TrEMBL record, chain A:
It is found in: Mitochondrion. GO terms for molecular function: nucleotide binding; RNA binding. The gene is Dwil\GK10572. Residues 54-120 form the TGS domain. It comes from the Eukaryota. Belongs to the mitochondrion-specific ribosomal protein mL39 family. PANTHER family: LARGE RIBOSOMAL SUBUNIT PROTEIN ML39, MITOCHONDRIAL RIBOSOME PROTEIN L39/PROLYL-TRNA LIGASE FAMILY MEMBER. PROSITE patterns: TGS. Keywords: Mitochondrion, Ribonucleoprotein, Ribosomal protein. InterPro entries: Beta-grasp_dom_sf, Pro-tRNA_synthetase, TGS, Thr/Ala-tRNA-synth_IIc_edit. GO terms for cellular component: mitochondrion; ribonucleoprotein complex; ribosome. It comes from Drosophila willistoni (Fruit fly). This is Large ribosomal subunit protein mL39. The lineage of its organism: Eukaryota, Metazoa, Ecdysozoa, Arthropoda, Hexapoda.
TrEMBL record, chain B:
One of its GO terms (biological process) is translation. It comes from Drosophila willistoni (Fruit fly). The keyword Transmembrane helix does not apply. The keyword Ribosomal protein applies. One of its GO terms (cellular component) is mitochondrial large ribosomal subunit. Pfam families: Ribosomal_L17 (PF01196). This is Large ribosomal subunit protein bL17m. Keywords: Ribonucleoprotein, Ribosomal protein. InterPro entries: Ribosomal_bL17, Ribosomal_bL17_sf. GO terms for molecular function: structural constituent of ribosome.
Length: 331, 201
């Protein structure tokens, strides 16, 4: 009898899983599916376009010793270089530094011979990594919001301003179809939980440079993104940089940290209504605060930071007209 | 009534000591165990930082602490302490080091004299956990870099900015209060004259 009940239980569970899967599939609408499909195609195309493999010399500077690595042009990434060094280097390095000045994503193929430094969060001069981390947090917040809202809420991500750690919070600006959305504490906690879930899943953050036309096609259903694309393309010779985490794709200048694993403590603290948008929608600014994983901070100090993160961030507002066209690019 | 205060009879250690000792598997029995520990304590006093298996390090640590603590309490004119030092330190020149170097160093300490870290074990290799045992105040570079002093780390940047903002608000508050105070006397005089009048009538 017990066996029978077990089988029944198993089938029931499978059925429920299937149902969940179905609802999920319905929710993660076709637009996201096609966007990801286009992303995959372009990624594959770029990989195939490499053609004949050429070698480049990468001079690694740092612990345990300086070495020269012979890597593949347009294929090998800083992460591959780290794999030649040790597992610890692979796990700890959040960002790479090329020629001592240019920050480079860990999973972005190297273009030519250069020197390479791998940056964990506890280097003595961590400005570059901190900035990349803050930007990544804004980006991940977008992904978490996408997962948290039902399709009825009509969530549209607008953009996120450049990372400014001193402001005390990272930001993502969104548009909702409601004009008086007041998130409760538990709702904000649910969004924070989505962030934490993502960090537990250890998802790679992928980067892809695409032509402006392709970006148009990918974001044709998103009104605000397609409005932003021309100015971004103009600044960058018609190229647009996209980032993907899981299924979520967004436009960003980069660089970002290598994986969601680096996100440690995280709180989404507040949502400020900025302005009405159209007849029924409104701009909201979602703010949060996060620390890289492995950073210890006692709850009182973190509480102070959380309190400060609730004040409205003074970064440029999304509905304000741009003063200078040069600054139009979202970060 | 005339009993001595038991807690003062032996040195109180500043580390956590297990209620039961470890036998440290050895063909020579308890004697062999003690010889092992004597070697470890000697090495610790000699080199000031040693890397070894966790069990042996943790066991030897208590004896090293006790030895240093007694040396500080009783000095080098105390026969039992001298015997203790003679027993635990296999190389006799280290007895001099104990009384002339370590005792002055630890005289004013209010924390333990030794420090123990967990160390990574070899993989693949012996399963036993490893550790690093060291005397405090040794001349080697620290094993754990102190991250609290680096003001550029993310949490320090955030905390510094929060502190600055807090001060800015305080100053603004103070300025507001001063403004109110400078404007207030006139008002209070008027008000007080107003309030006094009815009572006078």
């Amino acid at each position: 009898m017990s066996a029978a009940s077990k089988i029944h239980k198993a089938t029931w569970c499978a059925f429920r899983n299937l149902e969940q899967y179905r609802t999920k599939a319905k929710f993660s609408s076709s637009a996201i599916g096609t966007r990801n499909e286009l992303f995959n195609q372009e990624q594959r195309r770029q990989q195939d376009a490499v053609g004949r493999i050429e070698k480049i010399e990468i001079r690694y500077l740092g612990l345990p010793e300086d070495v020269t690595l012979l890597m593949n042009k347009h294929i090998s990434t800083p992460y591959n270089c780290a794999q030649h060094l040790s597992e610890g280097h692979c796990k700890r390095s959040a960002l790479a530094l090329i020629d001592g000045t240019i920050p480079w994503d860990m999973h972005r193929p190297l273009q030519e011979s250069c020197t390479l430094q791998l940056l964990p969060f506890n280097v003595s001069e961590p400005h570059v990594v901190n900035k990349a981390f803050w930007r990544t947090c804004s980006f991940l917040l977008g992904a978490a919001l996408h997962k948290s809202f039902k399709s009825e809420a009509n969530l549209q991500l607008h953009s996120f301003p450049g990372p400014n750690i001193k402001s005390g919070s990272f930001v993502h600006d969104i548009v909702l179809s409601s004009q008086r959305w007041q998130p409760s504490k538990s709702e904000l906690r649910a969004i924070s939980a989505e962030m934490v879930k993502m960090s537990a899943q250890d998802i790679l953050i992928e980067r892809l440079d695409v032509q402006q036309e392709l970006a148009y096609e990918m974001f044709k259903d998103s009104r605000y993104k397609s409005e932003q694309l021309p100015s971004i393309g103009k600044q960058n010779q018609g190229r647009v940089t996209l980032y993907r985490v899981g299924e979520h794709i967004d436009i960003s200048r980069g660089p970002m940290v290598a994986s969601t694993r680096f996100l440690g403590k995280c709180t989404i603290g507040v949502s400020h209504k900025l302005a009405n948008e159209g007849s029924s929608g409104a701009f909201y600014r979602i703010q949060g605060i996060a620390l890289p994983s492995g950073y210890m901070l006692n709850h009182f100090a973190f509480g102070l930071l959380e309190q400060r993160a609730q004040k409205l961030n003074s970064a440029r507002l999304p509905h304000e007209p741009f003063e200078e066209p040069q600054q139009m690019q979202i970060s | 009534m005339n009993q001595a205060d038991v807690s003062k009879l032996i040195s109180q250690l500043r580390i956590v000591v297990r209620p039961k000792n470890r036998n440290l598997k050895n063909p020579d029995g308890p004697e062999g165990r003690l010889l092992k520990l004597r070697k470890t304590v000697t090495a610790l006093v000699k080199h000031e930082r040693i890397e070894l298996y966790y069990n042996r390090a943790d066991e030897a640590r208590g004896y090293a602490e006790l030895l240093i603590s007694n040396a500080i309490r009783h000095g080098d004119r105390h026969k039992p302490t001298m015997e203790l030092a003679d027993y635990w330190l296999l190389e006799k020149q280290l007895v001099h080091k104990l009384f002339k170097v370590l005792v002055p160093r630890y005289d004013n300490y209010n924390v333990s004299y030794t420090r123990m870290y967990k160390a990574p074990r070899d993989y693949p290799g012996m399963y036993y956990k490893k550790s690093v045992l060291e005397l405090r105040g040794n001349p080697y570079p620290t094993l754990c870099a102190d991250q609290t002093q680096n003001r550029n780390l993310l949490h320090n940047v955030l905390l510094d900015e929060a502190r600055k903002e807090f001060r800015r608000e305080k100053v603004a508050d103070l300025a507001n209060k001063l403004n109110v105070a400078t404007e207030a006397p006139k008002k209070t005089v008027e008000e007080s004259s107003d309030t006094i009048k009815p009572t006078a009538i």
